[in-house]
Recover the amino acids of this structure.
């Protein structure tokens, strides 16, 4: 289990972790636990769901805690990350952890900001449908954000991101596959930008909610774990129910420590 104020990997680099799942599945429930591990964190909330958790509010005077982003402020995310990189490059990393809760919501707001197309001359604009140029701009927007998060993690900052889920046909298996709800090419290759991708599923048993965290690719879940071989060698659980952030980070640290050589980033 990592020390309370240290979220870095054994190499000193910050972990990059994506959790995806339906609304209410337990993504925010897990990542809000960051407040127990360090005071030096910034929690960017695009969904408004993190306000239920006991976190201090971010202010200029106290630049740590929860910052709720309205749709009008979604474009500020990249600037916030960039400022963090600049401070880290000067030897003053601003946060032990940066959480971006709601990558799907961020993407939808950015899609509307980039532009929409008309189906017919007399049809109303549909903000859910982009032109080909718009899709390209949106993909570039997401890739730029992902690359900046990679650089930030290089300076030792833990990066936690949540996204929604979409289900599509899997041509290889002929069944259904759950994957992060992101712009097509980004969602299909999301494992390139994160160390661990975890599918989170919420269920109800005996009228009590449970959160199941799928840490490996089990069944129809598109999950990428950079240390999958080590995970299996250590016989760490492929899925865990109602786990704490400390417990899952402990598993990840064990797997990363077990690897004999450092993994290149990107």
């Amino acid at each position: 289990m990592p020390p309370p104020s240290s979220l870095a990997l054994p190499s000193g680099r910050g972990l990059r972790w994506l959790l995806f799942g339906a609304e209410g599945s337990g993504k925010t429930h897990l990542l809000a636990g960051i407040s127990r591990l360090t005071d030096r964190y910034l929690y960017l909330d695009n969904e408004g769901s993190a306000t239920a958790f006991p976190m201090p509010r971010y202010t200029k005077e106290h630049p740590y805690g929860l910052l709720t982003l309205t749709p009008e402020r979604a474009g500020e995310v990249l600037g916030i990350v960039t400022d963090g990189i600049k401070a880290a490059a000067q030897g003053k990393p601003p946060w032990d952890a940066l959480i971006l809760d709601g990558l799907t919501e961020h993407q939808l707001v950015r899609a509307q900001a980039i532009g929409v197309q008309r189906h017919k001359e007399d049809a109303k604009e549909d903000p859910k449908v982009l032109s080909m140029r718009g899709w390209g701009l949106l993909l570039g927007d997401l890739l730029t954000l992902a690359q900046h998060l990679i650089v930030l993690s290089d300076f030792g900052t833990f990066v936690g991101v949540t996204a929604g889920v979409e289900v599509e046909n899997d041509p290889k298996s002929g069944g259904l596959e759950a994957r992060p709800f992101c712009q097509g090419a980004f969602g299909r290759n999301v494992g390139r930008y994160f160390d661990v991708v975890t599918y989170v599923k919420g269920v109800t048993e005996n009228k009590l909610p449970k959160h199941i965290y799928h840490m490996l690719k089990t069944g129809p879940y598109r999950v990428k774990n950079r240390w999958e071989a080590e995970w299996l060698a250590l016989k760490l659980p492929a899925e865990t129910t109602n786990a704490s952030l400390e417990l899952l980070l402990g598993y990840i640290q064990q797997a990363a420590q077990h690897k004999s050589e450092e993994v290149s980033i990107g």
